[in-house]
Amino acid sequence: MKMKSLRWSDDFMYQIILNHDRTYDGKFLTCVKSTGIYCLPSCPARKPLQKNIQFLPTEQAAIKAGFRICKRCRPDLFYRGENPDHTLFSEMLIRIRTNPDEIKSVTTMAKVCGISTTKLNELVRVHAHISPAELLCRERIHAASIALINANDRILDIGLSAGFDSEASFHRQFLCRMAMTPNAYRLLRESAKFSLKLPADYSAEDAWRYHLRDKNSLSERLEHQTLSRGLWVQGKPVLIHLTVDGGYAHCWWQDSDTLHQAGQLPAGVIIHQQVIRLLGLNTDISGFRSLTKSNKQVEKLLSPTRNIYIPLTATPFEALTWAIIGQQINLTFAASLRQALIELAGVEIPASDLKIHPTPLAISQLSPQQLSGIRFSRAKSEYLIAAAKAIVSGELNIDDLEFGSAIVAEKKLREIKGIGPWTARYTLMRGMGFADCVPVGDSGLHTALQQFYQLDKRPVAEEAERLMKPFIPFRTLATAYLWESLRKNHETES
């Protein structure tokens, strides 16, 4: 069979690759004789002299000629219809999680990925909404936390095995992310209580306000500054009590031997994970504040306001449920629908008059007629049941999405019927803790943007996206501050 010929001159194609022109990806390949690799025309790698390049029309022709794939532009993924950056980020995470001590620094990470540190910074920011250094730290602490629970090795050895360069560094960074020391974390194997060290500027006001959006809640209660609510632990409802006092958050619950089963995480570990979320303790306040030095819009947004820590729901599914319920209705009605759902499908918590938020399985077994009977619209009923069924079937692995790519997470969510940009991004914000989300379509956000920028009318979706760009890579926090500005204005007017 005669090989397909190219219709452009070598001079023309060489100019295309010098311009990194993506519109010619898939139309020809650049094969570098000196290195033996083949690249897409848009490949960011430094270009060799034209005399050292052979242009070929197809991937099959390049392979037949003895060339191998470029690890930077990944033409093999392009020809399979996969996004190279998505795959690169996923493969990088697998590499870090498999051998956390192998990657000693951000520079090493870039070399392992075959990209520049500039490209790495952008890749991690777009997909994880944090910096490469923060990603490394997060994954090292995760590896260390598993070892602390499952092994009896010295704490120093566990820290070194996870990639930390000293015991002091391990303790400092573990405390920062987990709000307790490694030794205290290890005690969660048996304990029925723990305390979390809070930032000096932390106030529980935002957390309590968020979790008690419904003043007559059946699932949460605040008495004497102690929040009581149920958490799912190994498939069982557990009533926890949480209070903030003297720079610490104290959590306790009724221990049960049934929660300690071989091969499963201890109750304390699971409850710790969810309490960190409920209090919003992984909010990067200092990173956002640092932008005030160079960003006038951030300075204007933050100057009149105290620091805000963004509370999350106990699980991603809770946030998704709330987002679907809250589509195109006001907060009061949404709260009443949520509680009606908990009354219908929630489970009573032992030794309490509270109920716990229903599981995906429980909601998947409801009929649209049952939800219509508690004032759900037909569309909301179908969307919520469809999402629950997708989770139960394994089509949507919602609990794992927060530890991967935000882009992939949003795409997966939006594949479910009835989940659009606002619902998906709200879930990413409040259910998964991604730091750079814009819930476009949110009425409160659009009103706050109008006031903040002193616009004549509320911005439409495209304009809201543009107006939020100055707050990259902290648009989730910026959204929280804009919502807070609305609340304060309302209180002033009242």
UniProtKB/TrEMBL annotation:
Protein's name according to its UniProt entry: DNA-3-methyladenine glycosylase II
Domain HTH araC/xylS-type: 90-188
Source organism per UniProt: Budvicia aquatica
Requisite cofactors: Zn(2+)
GO annotation, biological process: base-excision repair, AP site formation; DNA alkylation repair; methylation
Protein EC: 3.2.2.21
Pfam families from the UniProt entry: Ada_Zn_binding, HhH-GPD, HTH_18
SUPFAM superfamilies membership: Ada DNA repair protein, N-terminal domain (N-Ada 10), DNA-glycosylase, Homeodomain-like
Cellular compartments per GO CC: cytoplasm; protein-DNA complex
EC top class, as a word: hydrolase
